[in-house]
Design goal:
The complex is a heterodimer of chains A (about 210) and B (about 80). By secondary structure, chain A is mostly helical. Chain A has 10 helices and no strands. By secondary structure, chain B is mainly α. Chain B is built from 5 helices and no strands. In chain B, helix 3 packs across helix 4. Chain B is elongated, with a radius of gyration of 25 Å. Classes of the chains: A mainly alpha (about 210), B mainly alpha (about 80). Chains A and B meet through helix 2, helix 3, helix 6, helix 7 and helix 8 of A and helix 1, helix 2, helix 4 and helix 5 of B.
């Protein structure tokens, strides 16, 4: 995972004015920020703007950043906000705070029921070797509602905890969990249709009520 | 435990944060329900695929621009001989 001790040291030195330390922080996180941005905004130019804005914002607010906190989480939160700002601008909405966009608690009633159930033909290790797999993953992710995609990106891809994800997106932990579950089930469904072995597709038996 | 109930607890089971008593129920169900077993396996693999997926590398030209830009801004904010007021 991320080496928090190294981050803390670099942040400390960057705060004191050491350019090399700040640059090293950029080196350590630029790929992850850019990748997150790409997956949220969906295209290269905007992702570049988001990346630049993220590190600029981090630089400007570094003084107020408490070194005991996780730099990784803080940075991903800035990146997420910057990316959402771009999306809202695109849609012609005025920029609203995430808080205003927060939805009420989601119910658990309509979870996507697994329909296509089958073992995958290849393991994840084998799959990531295939050149076209990245495109499949991104196209599949793009099919999710933004609110589900965001939670999945932060929690499962970036590895943030439920609590960190909730803080970054200004949601309750309960909301994060429900959205995460929906995201995982939806992705499972879509990917299994592509990667599952149709010859071994299972039909869910009717269980007694 | 029925398939429906298992579905609700999927997150906790996959993340390993489920209550041990519920975990027992969960595994009892899985032992006798192949579809649920496969769904759990599918989900684990889905998460792994995305976690282990290739990140996007910064385009070279953009990366140079980015670093140049940040360097200049940083120097402005931290002039030699002391911090900005």
């Amino acid at each position: 995972m991320t080496d928090t001790a190294v981050d803390r040291e670099l942040v400390h030195r960057a705060k004191a004015g050491e350019l090399a330390a700040f640059e090293e922080l950029v080196n350590r996180y630029e790929t992850r920020v850019y990748t997150l941005a790409r997956r949220i905004v969906g295209q290269e130019q905007d992702a570049e703007d988001v990346t630049q804005q993220t590190f600029l914002s981090a630089m400007e607010h570094l003084d107020g950043f408490r070194e005991e906190a996780s730099f990784h989480t803080w940075l991903m939160r800035i990146a997420t906000h910057a990316a959402l700002k771009v999306i809202r601008k695109r849609r012609g909405l005025r920029t609203v705070s995430l808080e205003e966009m927060t939805e009420p608690e989601e119910g658990q009633e309509s979870l996507p029921h697994p329909e296509f159930i089958a073992d995958w033909r290849q393991s994840p290790e084998e799959l990531v070797q295939r050149r076209e797999i990245q495109r499949l993953l991104d196209e599949t992710l793009a099919q999710l509602d933004e609110k589900h995609r965001l939670v999945f990106l932060l929690r499962d891809v970036e590895g943030m905890t439920v609590q960190e994800t909730a803080t970054a997106l200004e949601l309750s932990e309960a909301n994060v969990k429900v959205r995460l579950l929906r995201a995982r089930l939806q992705l499972r469904e879509l990917l299994t249709r592509e990667l599952g072995d149709p010859a071994r597709r299972l039909v869910r038996p009717a269980h007694p009520v | 435990m029925k398939c429906e109930e298992l579905l609700l607890m999927l997150n906790e089971y996959v993340d390993g944060t489920v209550d041990p008593a519920i975990c027992d129920e969960f595994e009892k169900h899985l032992a006798g329900c192949n579809p649920c077993q496969v769904v759990v396996d599918n989900i684990r693999k889905t998460i792994t695929l995305y976690k282990d997926g290739k990140p996007y590398d910064l385009p070279i030209e953009f990366r140079e621009r980015l670093h140049g830009f940040l360097r200049n801004r940083f120097k402005q904010a931290h002039p030699p001989g002391g911090k900005q007021p």
